[in-house]
Amino acid sequence: MSDNNVKQRFEKIVDELSAPTSYLEVCHEHYEDEPMPSIAILQEIVEKCRQLIFPGFYGFIPINPTTLKYYTGLLVDQIYEMLVEQVLAGLCFSCKQERTVELLMSRKKLSKQITIDFIEYIPTLRANLSKDVEAAYLNDPAANHQGEVVFSYPSIKAICNYRIAHYLYKLGVPMIPRIISELAHSETGIDIHPHAQIGVSFSIDHGTGVVIGSTCIIGDRVQLFQGVTLGAKSFPLDEKGNPIKGIARHPIVENDVVIYSNATILGRITVGHHATIGGNVWVTEDVLPHARVIQGRSRIEKFIDGAGI
Amino acid sequence: MSDNNVKQRFEKIVDELSAPTSYLEVCHEHYEDEPMPSIAILQEIVEKCRQLIFPGFYGFIPINPTTLKYYTGLLVDQIYEMLVEQVLAGLCFSCKQERTVELLMSRKKLSKQITIDFIEYIPTLRANLSKDVEAAYLNDPAANHQGEVVFSYPSIKAICNYRIAHYLYKLGVPMIPRIISELAHSETGIDIHPHAQIGVSFSIDHGTGVVIGSTCIIGDRVQLFQGVTLGAKSFPLDEKGNPIKGIARHPIVENDVVIYSNATILGRITVGHHATIGGNVWVTEDVLPHARVIQGRSRIEKFIDGAGI
Amino acid sequence: MSDNNVKQRFEKIVDELSAPTSYLEVCHEHYEDEPMPSIAILQEIVEKCRQLIFPGFYGFIPINPTTLKYYTGLLVDQIYEMLVEQVLAGLCFSCKQERTVELLMSRKKLSKQITIDFIEYIPTLRANLSKDVEAAYLNDPAANHQGEVVFSYPSIKAICNYRIAHYLYKLGVPMIPRIISELAHSETGIDIHPHAQIGVSFSIDHGTGVVIGSTCIIGDRVQLFQGVTLGAKSFPLDEKGNPIKGIARHPIVENDVVIYSNATILGRITVGHHATIGGNVWVTEDVLPHARVIQGRSRIEKFIDGAGI
Amino acid sequence: MSDNNVKQRFEKIVDELSAPTSYLEVCHEHYEDEPMPSIAILQEIVEKCRQLIFPGFYGFIPINPTTLKYYTGLLVDQIYEMLVEQVLAGLCFSCKQERTVELLMSRKKLSKQITIDFIEYIPTLRANLSKDVEAAYLNDPAANHQGEVVFSYPSIKAICNYRIAHYLYKLGVPMIPRIISELAHSETGIDIHPHAQIGVSFSIDHGTGVVIGSTCIIGDRVQLFQGVTLGAKSFPLDEKGNPIKGIARHPIVENDVVIYSNATILGRITVGHHATIGGNVWVTEDVLPHARVIQGRSRIEKFIDGAGI
Amino acid sequence: MSDNNVKQRFEKIVDELSAPTSYLEVCHEHYEDEPMPSIAILQEIVEKCRQLIFPGFYGFIPINPTTLKYYTGLLVDQIYEMLVEQVLAGLCFSCKQERTVELLMSRKKLSKQITIDFIEYIPTLRANLSKDVEAAYLNDPAANHQGEVVFSYPSIKAICNYRIAHYLYKLGVPMIPRIISELAHSETGIDIHPHAQIGVSFSIDHGTGVVIGSTCIIGDRVQLFQGVTLGAKSFPLDEKGNPIKGIARHPIVENDVVIYSNATILGRITVGHHATIGGNVWVTEDVLPHARVIQGRSRIEKFIDGAGI
Amino acid sequence: MSDNNVKQRFEKIVDELSAPTSYLEVCHEHYEDEPMPSIAILQEIVEKCRQLIFPGFYGFIPINPTTLKYYTGLLVDQIYEMLVEQVLAGLCFSCKQERTVELLMSRKKLSKQITIDFIEYIPTLRANLSKDVEAAYLNDPAANHQGEVVFSYPSIKAICNYRIAHYLYKLGVPMIPRIISELAHSETGIDIHPHAQIGVSFSIDHGTGVVIGSTCIIGDRVQLFQGVTLGAKSFPLDEKGNPIKGIARHPIVENDVVIYSNATILGRITVGHHATIGGNVWVTEDVLPHARVIQGRSRIEKFIDGAGI
After folding, report:
1. Does the reported pTM lie above 0.90?
2. Chains that contact F by 3+ CB pairs under 8 Å?
3. What ipTM score was computed for the predicted complex, to two decimals?
4. How many Cα neighbours within 13 Å face the side chain of D254?
5. Which residues of A touch B303 (CB under 8 A)?
6. Given 2.40.50.690, 2.160.10.10, 1.20.120.80, 3.40.50.720, which CATH number is that of E196-296?
């Protein structure tokens, strides 16, 4: 940018973008000494959790009985240190209270308590994910080995993030769980809201396009395929015409249900245990236990000229 | 590779791959002193735009009234420098003219003009994205906070890339806009062609699998869900049997339309204002304003034995 | 973590996670001197293959007739060195034999043979991908340039990974091909099993949500759109109620077939040559050559009040 | 490490190294919430100071009147943020007081005050270094350009670190100045104690091996060459036989003195203004103004056989 | 490089440099499956040893009684893994034997034995370095704190590398010790040959230019200053006129000797215990215990005109 | 920085540092489209030259007759590309001419010519350095292997940089050679001016503190030890009292001379062939061929009390 005119335009743009009237709408108001949620740090925490839970699959941990405890201890400590900061960031994020030293001190203490509670959950998390891996392996004839599932099934990543995020949500952490679940959505195309409740031995095959809404309740041994939506049918509106927040509006899926690819189940309906939902169907009413729902037959016609449809 | 036979095979492979007959089909002919479009640099430009537009959300900018202008100025300058190069790369990419010093000089000048024009658009871009964030927040009962939308809604990333790419397309930049929109597609599963026209307060929930074709025209306050396709129905063929390029072939979606998950709208049809398209439907004809289109009812049958479908 | 109680909890967690009863279920048993499959290294191998095949598009290779052969040779050598290690890792991964020096030596030799065989395939791979690029360009009226296809069509990445993975599978490498195809799935939302067979001039437009199962056989000049599933209809169960592995259960798609977005084709059926499958349909029976299958018409009704559906 | 014996040895070593009896002697006792001095961060601070002071020479700052202020502001802010932490680390490092929240709070406040005071000194620092550069240029017939001095004279780096460190020392920061001066020593072989006092237009040619002790007082326009030692002659011992700390024991060098290579000046003596000290001499007594001190003549002898000496 | 002539020159240069006649003189003949000594890896090993020995000073280890053992175990394991490879590289480096699988296997085993022996020495190394730190602290009136010595005395780095290198030399490792000592030389300007023998509580102040030759024997509590040479006086030549290797030719320095800056002590002489050698002297004959050697007095003359010397 | 006062101080500092009156003295005036000399890039060029010249010693090049030419070609190309830019930067650095497109074009062409000339010199450079390595090996009884010299003798790095820098100087490149020689000075403590002339088989043992001035002329087979200065005795002053630049003022050292540690040779004198200069001497007059110069004997006295000197 050499000439004077460009210089003036350039400075004008910077001044405009730096004016509070421009940025106040889109920035997060941030207090000194309070950390910000960081997508990058949360991704790192998730990756360290995966390394810890499945030693040897994600990243560099040598599986050696002599040294495993050092790597384990180190990962636990690193997760702890980073997560304390992110939990604190979550607690501060939407806080409207006036800032005081006491408030910050009590939040720091709370972050540490929440984080050690989360850390204590990791052995259970590992046991649960082990069952999810087993379910994926048993349900998919293309899987040759449980290790193959860990290495190459995106659903394991998505469910891992979900279980981490859900537990943090139960411990009362705002904002952070939602970012963690979105990290898995971006990686896998599987979008599980952290508020959803999901039972054991949960499996999703392929997974791209799966959406599980925030008030879903899913039982044990449920099996989904790609493109399944467990969504809301309609949103009751408030007086301003905006959807009312916080109402139960997503399906209840009981134990041992199978839902095939691209099926859409909408609203606070119940899909009974052992029911099977076929691919590409649209379901907005309760489904009885052991029922089987499939799509209406497509129209087929002979066709000579191959051009267009 | 120790023995002689392997050595010979190795050299033969390299020679084969280095032969013009092998690589000319698949490489881009590149002139000295002309930059190449770079996916990595374009990703960096996009990330810096996001940092600039939403201070504090993407990356490390401290929100401090004293220092924000320095970070802003720096980001603007870095975006400028990188984008000048990429715009030039785009201008050169498919150029068939003979290369001269004058041509290169005039293109360098043009790149700088285009880039400063783009930079000048960023305050408007911020204002538009702010409205998109607000729309997503109001439309989704699961969203607790506008900041949550910025942090964890993939649609914001996709729309941000789209608005950047679309503006560069309007400024006459070839190639680069398409790469920018594909970057968002890979990140979010949302595929918006940069040539599409999209109004204000646009929202996409979940988003995976959304496709918006190149000649789409979308009004204001339109709301999409995951898996929606706004595509072409058929492609008129030229005399060689190949699709004719550049014909308007995607839907017009008027203001205040809602389209639910996995719906497919094909062809140069118009979806009238305030219409609602239900999930999983297939629409290839005009839809009247305020109309409501839903899928034919699925066949449901009781079923005892749970094995397969 | 300052106080004593936290210290005790912390140590207890680490001890629990380091106990064989906790980790043996979820780790891969790994022998000294045997490499582990590494997702990160495989990603690097894939990226170097892409750089090699399409010089100038992915990464930094200057297209200069004088120097191209050095870059080519270097990439070939780097791919060779990394792949030898990963092929060996694949061979060792699920091996149940007792470990001996001889076994390791013979596997190292085998890894080198397989890898040089793979390297020798790269010129053919380049030629095949060149045809895939051409097909995408000809089939999509929105594409202005073959270079645009390479730069911005996710299907090219997905098909590239598929062709690499499939060839490694044919050379007898376990585990590794599946990880390579999942890398593309994560990047593009396109999930092609490496065991599937796919002919020349294959194209996928947009691609998010495409699933191609492991026993699929796909002919030449086949064209898919986003969300297409070529899946299994049902899985015969063994005496324990688990799916029997290895049975042909996915469609055969003959030459010159077009399958539009979100169609679901299930089971070991045959879609005859030149057939067209419309969007969002569900097909579980054979389709005749030149046939055209489209969805049953949606129910449309006028609607005054815009609230919900 | 496979066999049992190695395992036992390995664990024994780790236990031994982790035992407080082993590490307490050599570690720094560190309180939670207190930062540690970090050599790496201090190096980064120094590099940013150099970038700030000499725009365009160290690192990437574009010298553009439009954008320079953004880069300047950014660097100042980054230096500020990092230095606040390091000053705090220095204040805490050797503190023996009992830790309280109030103590930490007051130290954090003090760190910020000291750091802003330091930042305010940077314009003066730049002016002083500019004179040092000019002196080096004028004194060295091999220098063609002041820019050459900035780019390639190690003394500029060493004097820059010294002036930074000395100012921090004057502001009352413990520990940190000494680390900063050692960073330059490692880079340049020039060892200037941060407590020394040095006037304007100071130059050192080549510089390797120069040592300037902690109680030195050096006037204006002094010029040193490589290998010069301004050291202590002897150290008065305390009753335990250890040197007494804090006594003035290094030379006073008045204005306009030149000291040639490898000269050694020891003890609290005064080298008078305009004196010249020749190379390789050993001086332990006062030198009068304008005096000239040179080495006793070497013995020279003819010698036929070239083997050894 | 566009024109043809440049292309030809370029290819000719590459061919020339790739010709065995050009590179065989200057490359190290390297066998497949044998690692090469790596300066970068050795630097990393040294840095990890420093981190391990002085927790908290070099790099990021938190000093926390709960977690220190995990960091310790991790560092020990990483040092072990990297050093096994480098010891093997050293064993192979100058080997002239014919290569067999058995030879390589036995060397791998030997590398592991040597490395575990070295690891076992680390607690002793820490104790010895702790005494060196104490000696530096006591000898230097400018040092305020033992922590200051660890943070900012280059001699500690140099002695640390020496003690590591010397132990590896005693364990029979070729080549590697010499590289490790040169790493410290480059960092600190202190050049200690790994074959030299040095007692406890060794200190070097400032240190730039210190050289300690390979056959030196240095007692306990010896104190050196910068620029001291403990070198060889002459080298007996063989019949070809080249120095004979391996003859004791450097000084023996007994306990409690102090040698001031830039003194040069040459040949296989003995400096008796409690002797003091003054700065800048040249000593080639035995020095008695308790003796004091100082330089002949310099010639001093008054001097009016300040120009030159 | 929260309160208002700090904000004002902060902004004042940035404004002061951004004012042309502050920065114009210390920045390099830089024209758009002209590259700046970059210390970091020059370091990378030097490292790539070392990798190229000594394959396998510096960095990762596998010594494999099949692949070496690819690595060689790549390195040559990378050195070429980076060096063209740096040569151009050097040509522009101190240019006072008015900037025109033609000037820049002709300089770009010149940079390419100079760089290809330099590249053509690399085979000779390798041959010369090979002789320097051999000389170091033969002269030092502590060296066991020529490979040890390459791996661990700092003089090889310093001489390598010198020979690179000297050739660039002879090709007419300003500024860049001086930076390259300073890079070696910082690494090794050996300071060789790029304008000095040095013959074949040159060796420096240990090397810290060696200074070789810009007008030195050094013959073949010369051998130096640490701390040797080949400097200027006095600098004739111009009418302003500043040293006159460009006068021959450093020693001529003829073939086969040995100069021992810390000797200082000053002025335009000649040290005759086969002369030997002892350690720590100060020489300012011609030395005859085959002469031997040693230091005057030190005063030695017995001494009882060990305190100080």
Report:
1. yes
2. B, C, D, E
3. 0.91
4. 14
5. 276, 290-292
6. 2.160.10.10
